[in-house]
Design brief:
Blueprint: E1 3-8, H1 16-23, E2 29-32, E3 41-45, E4 48-52, E5 65-68, E6 73-74, H2 76-88, E7 97-99, E8 103-104, H3 107-120, H4 132-140, H5 153-173, H6 182-197, E9 201-202, H7 204-213, E10 218-221, H8 245-252, E11 259-267, E12 270-272, H9 285-294, E13 306-308, E14 310-311, H10 312-322, E15 326-330, E16 340-349, E17 352-354, H11 361-366, E18 368-375, H12 392-405, E19 409-413, E20 421-423
Parallel strand pairs: 1-10, 1-11, 2-5, 2-10, 5-7, 6-8, 7-9, 11-15, 14-16, 15-19
Antiparallel strand pairs: 3-4, 12-13, 16-17, 16-18, 19-20
Length: 438
């Protein structure tokens, strides 16, 4: 059976969780393939909000096996807290599985993350200081501890002590910090965390392949988004893993032959958290209105997101990078009431017009957006459940996006609730590409 990837096409916070939840109806397994608890997915069910950080969004469907893949970095405290939260609210978590090859976030990762960000000063990256980057760095250095090490106390202690020799030296000599105690960390992880997590640890590569071989549908869920990708994002203002569709293979343990559908998720506008270039960023009343109407504050951090108009130049690059087969547009309702809706169709870079994303970071930082102004709509889209229920101007807006990208907009989110969506384009044939103003 083929696999489907759901990937963010902007800077994260696009609403991937609600579309994973939607697609999970036809899925038997949902796999989170990268990232850590720095990314939050929010799903609203019957007015009840579920904010998930590590466990895949599919956990809210009884028939789903939720899998945390080998490409994820896991803070055991956060995972246990999330399992307890879901259990207390009547959600069955007994089917959750965690890869033994997933790397662990340890206290020194969080300590280093906060210190490095503080010492960068004005050049800080805007990380969540949750140890994600340092954990991935140790993974690349082959100095990390993995979930499976929790099941082997001897190996865990030996690896921890080796790691702390280096970490404590750095903390003391560079940052003038007190050393971390190996015995305290070992007790916490081996005596408290390991027994709680042991029932969930599994060989997830075999588990996923057995599902595929049995004809089951596997959904691969990324965290963050395309332009936070370590290789293809707005470096260095990126995450420490590969949220793009290619990362789904390495982060889950399947080959690209199994992936036949890639759903790219974008907001009907754009937001970003932290530092980095943002050509369509708004600093005016329209931006404030988007933040207010869209409740644009981080699920985990509470930070105000930077707002902007939809950027089709970047979105087309994301479609290419991910081989998107279709799009899902979230939060169309946030644009209700705007007299004019602007869409970026090209850039002016040093007096040169381009419809391609600049490869040089400096040029992207200097890019001025060239907009196409489209009529807005006054009627609310919240009650729309079919394409014909949408205001004509909203239909025209979505059709404009389709024509520019040459890709169908399959789903449109018109509100936060689970059932507040429209199947906008049910066909599968690609559209003719005709970038506006190109």
């Amino acid at each position: 059976m083929p696999a489907t990837v759901v990937v963010g096409t902007q800077w994260g916070d696009e609403g991937k969780g609600r579309f994973v939840d939607l697609l999970a109806k036809e899925t038997q397994m949902v796999v989170r393939y990268q990232g850590g608890h720095n990314a939050g997915h929010t799903i609203v069910v019957d007015g009840e909000k579920f904010a998930l950080q590590l466990i895949p969004s599919g956990v809210l469907n009884d028939h789903i096996i939720p899998v945390i893949g080998n490409g994820v970095v896991v803070d055991p405290r956060v995972l246990i807290s999330e399992l307890d939260m879901l259990g207390s609210r009547g959600v069955d978590t007994s089917q959750v599985r965690v890869s033994g090859n997933a790397h662990l976030i340890l206290p020194y990762h969080q300590e280093m993350d906060a210190l490095i960000e503080r010492y960068l000063g004005d050049n800080r990256l805007g990380t969540t200081k949750r140890g994600i980057g340092p954990a991935y760095a140790d993974k690349a250095l082959r100095a990390g501890l993995r979930v499976q090490d929790l099941m082997d106390p001897g190996a865990f202690r030996a690896k921890l002590e080796a790691a702390l020799r280096d970490k404590n030296a750095t903390l003391a000599r560079v940052y003038n910090r007190l050393p971390l105690d190996a015995d305290e960390i070992a007790h916490l992880y081996l005596e408290e965390y390991a027994p709680r997590l042991a029932p969930y640890v599994a060989d997830t590569v075999t588990l996923i392949h057995e599902a595929l071989e049995a004809g089951q549908h596997v959904l691969l869920e990324g965290a963050q988004a395309t332009f936070l990708d370590l290789d293809h994002g707005t470096y260095p203002f990126v995450t420490s893993s590969n949220p793009t569709a290619g990362g789904a293979c390495t982060g889950s343990g399947i080959g690209p032959r199994h992936i036949t559908r890639v759903v790219g998720v974008a907001k009907a506008y754009a937001t970003r958290v932290g530092a980095g270039p943002f050509p369509t960023e708004l600093f005016d009343e329209a931006g404030d209105r988007i933040v207010e109407q869209g409740h644009e504050f981080g699920t985990n951090t509470g930070r105000r997101r930077r707002p902007g108009w939809l950027d089709l130049v970047m979105l087309r690059q994301a479609v290419r990078l991910n081989s998107c087969s279709e799009l899902a547009i979230a939060k169309l309702d946030v644009l209700d009431g705007f007299e004019t809706v602007r869409v970026c169709v090209a850039y002016d870079v040093d007096g040169r017009r381009t419809t391609s994303l600049p490869d040089l970071q400096g040029e992207l930082g200097r890019a001025d957006p060239i907009y196409e102004d489209l009529p807005g709509w006054t009627a609310s889209v919240r009650r729309a459940r079919e394409r014909g229920d949408l205001p004509p101007a909203a239909v025209d807006y979505l059709a404009f996006v389709e024509r520019y990208l040459g890709l169908p907009v399959r789903y449109v989110g018109v509100g936060p609730e689970r059932d507040e969506y429209v199947v906008f384009n049910g066909g599968s044939a690609p559209l003719a590409v005709s970038p506006a103003g190109a």
